[in-house]
Amino acid sequence: MTLLEALKWGRAALAGGESPDIDAQLLLMQAAKVSRTTLLAFGERPLAPQAQAQFEGYIARRQNGEPVAHILGEQEFYGLALEVNPHTLIPRPDTETLVDLALALPEAPLRFLDLGTGTGAIAIAISHHRPAWQGVAVDAIAEAAALAGRNVQRHQAKVEVCQGSWFMPVRGQRFGLIVSNPPYIDPVDPHLGQGDVRFEPLSALIAEEAGLADLRYLVEQAPAYLESPGWLMLEHGYDQGAAVRQLMSERGFELVRSERDLGGQERVTLGQWQDK
């Protein structure tokens, strides 16, 4: 079997899925240890039997619904390759909106806090583009904190990783920016039984109060940990923008607004805090 023949077989095997072409490409590149350029330009090259067997195994796992990122063991986010595993959410392009907003702040050095960091994606991306900033990334799950630590080391990011629930590891500290992609899905949302989320930890996905409980907690608690002025930026569900804006405004945040993701959905709400 050549590379091109293997690619065609993989596409056909995954037909009907969300992205059979790109999935087959990524899995074949991993199994054959070739670049996309080699795969597309030199498709007549033979595929070694061991690589073919591995590719077939990857395709079988994908047919069972396992996320490509889990099969590969990594996912790209904001141009950075990150290790992933089933203990955390897989970084998604929509979350890059949050990084964009953080990087739109003045470049003067500041300390920032990433709560519920998971893979460390947000903190690492911010640190990569703002090397003068100092970051702290927190996650309650030991395996997630360890994973974030490995990704921080991989990219030599100026980020300290701590294990603990929300603000507990940073009591008494203040930051110029707090960011978070917290759980925000309603526990009864039917999408929890579909796609990649079936393989991701529910603790990183769902929140009570129709998905607003953790967002509400962060809005209530953040002022005690923000410098004056300081910014809070929260990712949320496509239909939660109005509710999060209301929470921030009622808490006393100023300049509150929501920004849309690549799909045009309200995805991040931010507000500025100033001590009264």
Automatic annotation (TrEMBL):
PROSITE patterns: N6_MTASE. SUPFAM superfamilies: S-adenosyl-L-methionine-dependent methyltransferases. It catalyses: L-glutaminyl-[peptide chain release factor] + S-adenosyl-L-methionine = N(5)-methyl-L-glutaminyl-[peptide chain release factor] + S-adenosyl-L-homocysteine + H(+). Residues 5-73 form the Release factor glutamine methyltransferase N-terminal domain. GO terms for biological process: methylation. S-adenosyl-L-methionine binds at G116, T117, G118, T119, G120, D139, W166, N181. The keyword Signal does not apply. Keywords: Methyltransferase, S-adenosyl-L-methionine, Transferase. Residues 105-185 form the Methyltransferase small domain. Its EC number is 2.1.1.297. It comes from the Bacteria. Substrate binds at N181, P182, P183, Y184. One of its GO terms (molecular function) is nucleic acid binding. Methylates the class 1 translation termination release factors RF1/PrfA and RF2/PrfB on the glutamine residue of the universally conserved GGQ motif. Belongs to the protein N5-glutamine methyltransferase family. PrmC subfamily. HAMAP family: RF_methyltr_PrmC (MF_02126). This is Release factor glutamine methyltransferase.
